[in-house]
Amino acid sequence: MLNKEIVNKTIEFLYKKFDESEYLSAKPDKKAYRIEHSFRVANIGRQIVGKEGFDETEMTVACLLHDISYCETFGEDGWINHGRRAAAIARPFLKELGFTEDRIADMCYGIAIHVDDLADFDGEHTPFALTVGDADNLDRFDAYRIHETLCAEDFLHLDLAGKTENVNKKLDLLKKWEARTFSTKTAKQMWRERITFYISFYQKLQSQLYNSTGINGL
Q: How many CB atoms lie within 10 A of CB 114?
C-alpha cells in the first residue's frame, strides 16, 4: 500500500534538489526531462511491485531518487558515478523519512548499482535492488524515448542514405538486446513487450525508407 505522505515528501525533496541545482537551472530542458523520467521510472517500479510483492512505498521512493544526483555538476567521470552519488544523497533523506537501516541499505544499493552494477559500499543484489535498475532500463525503451532519440539525432535532416544507415544500426542493436536479463518475471514480460514494439517500429520505418527510393521491381 502506498504511503502518500512519504511519497509526497520525496517528490518535494526531488523538486527542491533540482530547483537548487545550478547545473539544471542552466538547462531547463534537461531538468524537465529528468523529473519526467524519474516519475516514469517510479510508475514502472509500481507496476512491477503490483505483481512481485515488494513494498510499494519503498520502490516508489527508490525510483524517484535514482537520478537525484543530476542536481550536481558532473565531472569527467560523473555520469558513470551518478548512481553512487544518488545513493549518497538519498541515504540521509531516507533516514529522515523513518525507513529502517536494512531497508535503506536495500534501497540505496539499488540506486547505486542502477548505472553500471557497481556500488561503493557493501550490499546484496536482491530482486528489490535490481528492480530499480530494471525500471530505469524499461523507461529507456518506450514511445517517448523513440521520439527523444530521433530528435537528438536530428533524424529528419539526414539524407535518405543516412536515415537508412541509422535505422539499420538500431535494428542490429535491438536484436542483440532482445535477450537482456531482468530480475523478475514481471520485468521480463514488460521488456519483451517493449523490445517487440521497438523492433516493430524500426522495421516499419526501415520499410518506409526502402519504399522511398523508387518504384520497387522496376
A: 28
Nearest CA to 183 out of 1, 25, 49 is that of 49
DSSP string, 9-57: HHHHHHHHHHHT-HHHHT-HHHHHHHHHHHHHHHHHHHHHHHHH---HH
pTM: 0.91
Residues 6+ apart with CB under 8 A from 160: 209, 212, 213
Tens-digit pLDDT string for the chain (218 aa)? 899 999 999 999 999 999 999 989 899 999 999 999 999 999 999 999 989 999 999 999 999 999 999 999 877 667 789 999 999 999 999 999 999 999 999 999 999 999 999 999 999 999 999 999 999 999 999 898 999 999 999 999 999 999 999 999 999 999 999 999 999 999 999 999 999 999 999 999 999 999 998 887 77
Contacts of residue 14, Cβ cutoff 8 Å, sequence gap at least 6: 35, 38, 64, 65, 68
Q: Count CA atoms within 13 Å of residue 4 on its CB side.
A: 0
| Burial class, 183, CB count within 10 angstroms (exposed 0-12 / middle 13-18 / buried 19+) | buried
